[in-house]
Amino acid sequence: MTGRTGVLLLALVLLLAACGGDSSDTTASPTTQTAATSTTEAAAPESTTTAAPETTTSTTSTTVTPTTTTVAPQGAVLDDGRPATFLAITDDYEAVEVDTASGEIIHSYGQAGTAAEVDSAEEMPPNVFVGIWRLNDGSMVGISDCCEPAAGNIFYLEPDATLPDDVYSHENRTYGWMLSPSPTNASFANLGYELVIENGMTDSGSGWWVDDPSLGFPMGAAAWDRDGSQLYWVTRIEQAAALAMVDLAEGDPTHVTLLPWIGVHQWFDGVGSQAGGNLVGFLHTTELDTGEITDTTGIVFSTSGEILAEFPVETGSTWGGYDTTGTFLIYIDGDGAARWQGAGQAGVLGGGFISASW
Q: CB-based contacts of 246: which residues, under 8 Å, 6+ apart?
């Protein structure tokens, strides 16, 4: 694990585990692959769409029917189809918008934490920004902080706005850890102790408690399927890793299947949905004594939990996510460089970041 990115990753994982998660060892053998450092083609393989899995256990919940209005892809795109800008948190914890082609910062949303807190964040992050996302129609941005309170804060604001110097005086604020924009409508999936569908101003439903024993404790962000009707996330259920799912029309959180390929001393970072419908995320392997990340591998897997392909990413990389089409992946490598993969190509977008999203 290198730099501030790795420190933040480890700190957030440890915090979440201490607040209710169970990261005990599984009995399965880990599946890993040596990471690559090349900036040439290393794109996540495209795989065929898999059928919906048969579920095993479920709990009842309030029925929530998602909106079906289709929204335009976020903003302008480059000739190759990538979004013209991306969002990022810099290595001094400033939330920014960056020009994809030039790597130049074109807008600042602000910075959380006092100067002393920012200076100390390399050792253990206090109240600083760690994640940023936007709705696919570009109408709203959500920014998360770490690490107090334990529930985390999500700050919602318009795309051209700036947070006040005292960010905690911002009125449009809720709790959560990670956001995932819907590919089909102006909604976020806000994952924390609870999974809630939000449009940035109000909840669209009562949500689902995900730290219940039947649903385990989430390891990373949730992924929408391509039609926006279901959400998937990787979770710990007692001593095993599993894929959990909620059908937004039915409102039933369901334990889908165990993931035995997440083994001893491993954890999963984020999950997103490709254009073909398969799920993708980063599998980290760590040292037992130090917690240092020794390997990071990109994993493509089906919605029923089977690994379909592996692809190389740099050790210590931080998951970012896909663009609205499910074609282009953005992430931060272990040295703080923003990178992208997709359509058979790959490249570097700029340096000095701890997290990014389209």
A: 61, 195, 208, 230, 231, 252, 253, 254
Supply 345's token pair. Answer: 């190509």
DSSP output for 26-84: PSSPP--------SSS-PPPP-PPPPPPPP-EE------PPP----PPSS-B-TTS-BS
What is the spatial distance between Cα 279 and Cα 272, in angstroms, rounded to a whole number?
6
Q: How many Cα atoms within 13 Å fall on the side-chain side of residue 22?
A: 17
pLDDT surpasses 70 at 38: no
pLDDT at 282 over 90: yes
Q: How many residues are recorded in the chain?
A: 358
pTM of the model: 0.81
- Domain count of the fold of the chain: 1
List phi, psi (to 5°) of 175: -110, 150
| Domain CATH code at residue 110 | 2.120.10.30
Range of the domain at 42: 3-357
pLDDT at 345: 95
d(CA 198, CA 191): 10
Distance CA 143, CA 135 (A): 12
